[in-house]
Amino acid sequence: MAGNSFGTLFRFTTWGESHGPAIGVVVDGCPSLLDLVAETDIQPWMDKRRPGQSRYTTQRQEPDQVRILSGVFEGKTTGTPISLLIENTDQRSKDYSDIAGKFRPGHADYTYWQKYGIRDYRGGGRSSARETACRVAAGAVARKVLGSAIQVRGALVQVGPHKIDRSRWDWAEIDNNPFFCPDPVAATQWAEYLDGIRKSGSSVGAVVELVASGVPVGLGDPLYDKLDSDLACAMMTINAVKGVEIGNGFAAAELTGEDNADQMRMGPDGQPQFLTNNAGGILGGISTGQDIVVRFAVKPTSSILTPRQTVDTAGNDTDILTKGRHDPCVGIRAVPVGEAMMACVLADHLLRRRAERRE
Amino acid sequence: MAGNSFGTLFRFTTWGESHGPAIGVVVDGCPSLLDLVAETDIQPWMDKRRPGQSRYTTQRQEPDQVRILSGVFEGKTTGTPISLLIENTDQRSKDYSDIAGKFRPGHADYTYWQKYGIRDYRGGGRSSARETACRVAAGAVARKVLGSAIQVRGALVQVGPHKIDRSRWDWAEIDNNPFFCPDPVAATQWAEYLDGIRKSGSSVGAVVELVASGVPVGLGDPLYDKLDSDLACAMMTINAVKGVEIGNGFAAAELTGEDNADQMRMGPDGQPQFLTNNAGGILGGISTGQDIVVRFAVKPTSSILTPRQTVDTAGNDTDILTKGRHDPCVGIRAVPVGEAMMACVLADHLLRRRAERRE
Amino acid sequence: MAGNSFGTLFRFTTWGESHGPAIGVVVDGCPSLLDLVAETDIQPWMDKRRPGQSRYTTQRQEPDQVRILSGVFEGKTTGTPISLLIENTDQRSKDYSDIAGKFRPGHADYTYWQKYGIRDYRGGGRSSARETACRVAAGAVARKVLGSAIQVRGALVQVGPHKIDRSRWDWAEIDNNPFFCPDPVAATQWAEYLDGIRKSGSSVGAVVELVASGVPVGLGDPLYDKLDSDLACAMMTINAVKGVEIGNGFAAAELTGEDNADQMRMGPDGQPQFLTNNAGGILGGISTGQDIVVRFAVKPTSSILTPRQTVDTAGNDTDILTKGRHDPCVGIRAVPVGEAMMACVLADHLLRRRAERRE
Amino acid sequence: MAGNSFGTLFRFTTWGESHGPAIGVVVDGCPSLLDLVAETDIQPWMDKRRPGQSRYTTQRQEPDQVRILSGVFEGKTTGTPISLLIENTDQRSKDYSDIAGKFRPGHADYTYWQKYGIRDYRGGGRSSARETACRVAAGAVARKVLGSAIQVRGALVQVGPHKIDRSRWDWAEIDNNPFFCPDPVAATQWAEYLDGIRKSGSSVGAVVELVASGVPVGLGDPLYDKLDSDLACAMMTINAVKGVEIGNGFAAAELTGEDNADQMRMGPDGQPQFLTNNAGGILGGISTGQDIVVRFAVKPTSSILTPRQTVDTAGNDTDILTKGRHDPCVGIRAVPVGEAMMACVLADHLLRRRAERRE
Questions:
Q1: Which chain C residues are Cβ-neighbours of A284 within 8 angstroms?
Q2: pLDDT-wise least confident of A262-266, D74-78, D353-357
Q3: Is the pLDDT at C28 greater than 80, yes or no?
Q4: How far, in Å, CA of B149 to CA of D359, rounded?
Q5: Chain D residues with CB-CB distance to B220 below 8 A
Q6: How far apart are CA B72 and CA B144, in angstroms?
């Protein structure tokens, strides 16, 4: 049934298959009078996710140029739905002809087939990571809603077994390497490691960390639209994501109450301050005013050059080897996608929070 | 704003504070003609979560007796909303009088205060784990929807730093110890470990694992109502949960595509079979027909007997020591709560799946 | 499937059958810090709808005393769900024993039976007008959200073929007769007319008019959550309602563009003013700042003392005569119910409007 | 806030302004494996609504050619969102240059301005009836869901003060005149009447009647997603609609219970039958299995050639005369739009009904 919309007040709906004529997103609920220009406000974020920019991501070449079809008048949002369209230009359907009847392990081929009884087998169709371009476009609009005071940033903090050294974290490094890696030493190691993965036709998983700063206290609607539950949902909708955590996350399981709870003191500005941020900026499902910290795990790309055992739609055992253009580490491009989803969740809750303001 | 409902077709709404006269849940969308009797169909699950049953959980004594106020006629569901009410009997409001003006670290006191400008300070009010009794009641109804073919079970797999040995996993052990632990050796170790935690007035985190078996292929609605994103959301709404993962979860980040993707072969019954279940029973957001495997991390109980630094509503630095009756490891009682939430998610998606059946 | 909730940001969920132990409503999304006391803020509206107050309404005696079970602390709303419970005291199930297997014409007996395969036949069960007590309770909370500046009032403007004379409209007359009639002359005529209807065991339809004043411009969310579409939906959910119109309504079909469109002039206060209100205060689905005017038609009570042809659940032709206590004109008690629904729609849109306010 | 989606399981989202590059609709929740071809399955319905086909509708010339951008593979629906796009070709923005700063009486200009603080003044922007082309496209998809057994038809039954003679009702006449009029005599009268209206630059209102046949018993979800409340909502979202009624509608107010309730008898096929259909095929919010009958009133087109008093955005009194191309009776083209909305409501409830089927 219908499941292609996300959000409540700031709500987007995506559509499109990887090998159809276009993909797109309709953003509904964006407030009016925000400046929104495709070239300057949306395209830069698209470019960040765009494939083919380094040898560590798929070589599919898509300009990912966004067109605004509605909801903007003379450079400003009008409060009506914003329709964004991205044409598919590099479709190469022929690459996929040999997998039309086979279920690629780790992909959604089998489940789509079973659920719908039909499948657009060209490159994953709807389940392709290509759809995430729409999320990034929606996220760019969400950032306009958040304004300049709220900043959403993401980083890759682990590639395969290799984690960053957090003592070297430097946001400025993010743009200096093709991995969105905040640790320049790790970035160098990853480059070598991923070259090996790429050349062997293999793939590897990764962990992304997102941080939102400037988020005011009070966002989140307990008990079932909590800020953290909405963030967990958002991240888990991203292709290949298998785990999500907030603040200390799974590490909190090993801690005692003395170590985990964030103590408070009045700050020099006369406002309550937390002395630590183990909670990742969320208590009881509501933002505390601290940085919101989310991490999510991305599984290794399922398309690899080593033949794997599978079956076909006719019920025969067979092997498959995915020859298409793919990412050795799909987690890299998940960084801007995660950022976009976080921005959308925050924009939604920011509007929800406004609704409850006392006059 | 409104955030106290969960689900779409199978939908529940909870209400109530820990120290009000009662708590309750309205279950809407339950199909008609299911047998539903409070004593036999709901109460056993309530008893599993009920506090005061061992020295490892809070000593608050609540019979947690559920009354069915609507939606059932002559022992069968009628398709109309099922209202379930649980009276609060052991409220002891006086225990909380000294914390009325202080924000307990790790609790939602500060964020509720900031968000709503008012707070029912008696025992956490709405943010108390007491509300989870309503989830268990809803989950009991969800299990009737799932029927006997779909089974949802949970286990505690880690307490503090102590994990179970998976080679000893035995579901039959779950009921033989007060921890829902499937490993009898670990259970013995935990007993000793948690005695120490309890006596020192401390607390510790834990990890819960849920397994749903018998789930048919095809449940889940990509791309934003995926089965895994809904499960992640569900788990993250539970008090104190800080992380969720599906199948291999975060461990998938360290794997290669060769190791992580589940290969397939035709089974002896002529049906496609997966050779492994790294995916945790979900591909592309849709159930594969295998066991659904979810894990979530629970932070240590924030109420501890060691004084912690905090501030009060008047803006003064102060210390706080939470003397009330509390759980040394709130993760234990999170097991039946997690099961209930999983059952509700599955019931919802089972009904959604029915809607798309071809005639 | 689930269908017992109404509203988005201000959202209520009702439950309960006419002859169960109780009925109730959970109001979610009510802002915090509003004064709310059962006796003074809710009960007066309940009493207005309460049956048995004149010979023109059912003689069922229900005190309809509302209990607040959650969401209020020390007399103020806390922002958490407000659970309101009303016990059923005068159930007299025996009155309905002879209709258990027969479908009462005009009632929902047949459709509930077909839809759910089971039916609580005692007095209509869920489809009974008794449920509207919950709506009135929710409406009382909605009025607190609207505040004193927004006023929602209703009147009966037609009983059977007898309409009021609009030139005699006086809101002060509403409380001077048992019909909520603003025309004292019509009220006298209706009393005589309805006495005849009542004595003959018959029933008659009616038309209710609702007026909301003080509504600010800008409420309503085109194109599918328009203020008028939400109002139309709200009214049509009320038992026995068969038609809804806004402003000129069906009469607009007979007018020309010159006569129907409301012209504007700048007012003495320097604000734009409409010279007429044919639109009923809504243009393009958005409130204009004028009075919102809604009318709805209520069909005659289906329970009458004249035998009618029907069938039974065993598939036999039979006749039925409904002996229970019923309203000769159910439209009378629909006035406070319509008011409540209008208040809920406006409260929801008022909160929605706040969400889009520019900082 | 977000308000541009309609439906729950069968759900569509529209976007686009009358004078932007295109308009469109995303249909989510359409089951898979339905045949869907733009030219044969959608276009004929578009053509029915398309302007410029007679002198009684606007002379705007739009081919309204629909492109399917997603959700269909090899001529069949895939269960993924169906994106339909219609380019705006005849935009003539210059026609509207003189009304940029004036509020046209009866239009949504003033309310959009107040709500959003900005307005796409070219031809009504989002509030233009042009958007209804998207509804018709969605309705064409809905008809595929309904299948051939369920038929949705509409007719114009009143133009200004001139009603049809119901004894002459002949569905075959609908396509024989430019009014969708089932009474050939009335059609002739209307032609003459509307010629006068058109030549004088005036406009007039109308009433549309919709009939759905073949609808199974059991559709509709009491108490707040009733079939009739959803239909009322749907019709009231259509531009210029001011009233909706089901079955006898407002006429029911004048009837007695003896006359209004539909009696039953066992039919020759051994199934219960209703002897009349005063209820319009809905009892208690659930379909009875009879024809569903809905009527709605459309106000006269607000754009007329007679100058009307208004104000401008600068706060000055002014007059306005709308010179653009407009419909003398917008109610005519509301017929296929109403049909489409009814088809969408029924498709949604048909899917919802499937979800509750017992195995």
A1: none
A2: D353-357
A3: yes
A4: 13
A5: none
A6: 13
Supply B155's token pair: 């286990």
To the question of whether residue D212 is assigned a binding role by annotation, the answer is no
Query: What does the alpha-carbon distance between residue A48 and residue A25 come to, in Å, rounded to a whole number?
Result: 18
pLDDT of residue B93: 55
Judged against a pLDDT cut of 80, whether residue C13 lies above it is answered with: yes
Shortest Cα–Cα distance, B183 to chain D (Å): 38
Which stretches does DSSP call E strand in chain D? 5-6, 11-15, 22-28, 66-68, 72-73, 76-77, 82-87, 151-159, 162-163, 206-213, 241-246, 264-266, 272-274, 282-283, 286-287, 292-298, 308-311, 317-320
Distances (CA, A) of B138 to B41, B353, C96: 11, 20, 31
User: How many Å apart are CA B231 and CA B237, to the nearest integer?
Assistant: 10
**Separation CA C226–CA C241 (nearest Å):** 20
Residue found under tokens 């759980």: B327
CA distance A89 to A109: 23
Is D356 close to B352, i.e. CB distance below 8 A?
no
Would you say B199 is a known binding-site residue?
no
Nearest CA in chain D to B33: D358
Query: CB–CB of D266 and C235 under 8 A?
Result: no
Q: Which of D32, D80, D351 sits opposite B355 (nearest CB)?
A: D351
ipTM of this complex prediction, to 2 decimal places: 0.97
* Cβ partners under 8 Å of residue D325, min gap 6: D58, D59, D60, D95
pLDDT of residue D259: 95
Asked if D69 and A15 come within 8 Å (Cβ–Cβ), the reply is: yes
Contact C357 A354 (CB under 8 A): yes
**Full-model pTM:** 0.97
Among the partner-chain residues C14, C24, C29, the one whose CB lies closest to the CB of B1 is: C29
A115: helix, coil or strand? helix
Residue with tokens 């609920």: A29
Give the pairing of strands C206-213 and C292-298: antiparallel
- Which of D163, D166, D169, D151 lies closest to D331 in space, CA to CA? D163
Q: How far is the C-alpha of C276 from the C-alpha of D317, rounded, in Å?
A: 16
- Angle (CA) D335-C282-D330 rounded to 5° is 25
Burial group, residue C95, by CB count within 10 angstroms (0-12, 13-18, 19+): middle
